[in-house]
Amino acid sequence: MARVLKGKEVADAICERLAKQCAELKEGGVNPTLCTFRVGEREDDIAYEKAAEKRAEKTGVTLRRVVLPAEVTQEEFDAEWKRVNEDPAIHGILLFAPLPKHLDMERARETMNPAKDVDGITLSSLAGVFTNTKTGFAPCTAEAVMELLRHYGIPVSGKKAAVIGRSLVIGRPVGQLLMHENATVVNCHTRTQDVPEITRQADILVCAAGQMHCVTEEYTNPAQTVIDVGIHWDEEKGALTGDVDFARVEPQVAAITPVPGGVGSVTSSVLMAHVIEAAGRD
Fold first, then answer.
1. Confidence band for 48, pLDDT divided at 50, 70 and 90
2. pLDDT of residue 238
3. Residue 94, domain extent
4. What beta strand segments (E) does 22-133 contain?
5. What DSSP string runs through 122-166?
6. Residues 147, 246: one domain?
7. Are 160 and 225 members of one domain?
8. How many angstroms separate the CA atoms of 179 and 164, rounded?
9. What are phi and psi of 164, to 5 degrees?
10. d(CA 125, CA 140)
């Protein structure tokens, strides 16, 4: 039986620390404020928005919402986006992506105020991730992976890590964060040959492929820590599940995160940490 690395314990520890930091900022006249910016009614966006609301309440961060209809025009979107970016009372913006196809995501990314980019979507923030500097913030999910590893005392330095996925949202950023902690990292992707052969050699396996249950026991080894970043709706079971086939993998590895209740539980707490840090920089 593997050690199950639950996110709630990690998130609660982060929130306890953040509540003190937030209170200190408020005493100094700064009210850390996050704006969630959502277009349409996607279920996963709404679920994350609710999670952010709960974490904001626990930490003392003020939460504002912008919700636009899915059929909003580009001009209407741009006007609201500009207003939020220029509002001095807002310290962080969480833009839910992907946007509807008729809206220009690249324009939103390029015109976002980098100082308010608390989820690492701008090029300047991503540059900070790759250069290991304090320019902006890393994507929250990538940093949540690192928080889990730290909290549970999983060694990273000198270890072999394999990441399945190469997106700028999680795959490549988490690979860089692991490398900054002195892991030797391989990023696997759709053109990688014999992925199981590579991942079986890893001490840490991060699964961010975006494909339900694509990782089975053949990808793992008995001493491995498996971090599942994927989140999907399993129609057959009527429940959330991950990239990893948990029932098949859990008995075969040393440690594993569940879905739900793993990385996702930590992500919203990392988001609040970024907002509070951004507020402290003002």
1. confident
2. 87
3. 29-116
4. 33-39, 62-68, 92-95
5. SHHHHHHHHHTSSSS---HHHHHHHHHHHHTT---TT-EEEEE--
6. yes
7. yes
8. 15
9. -95, 110
10. 12
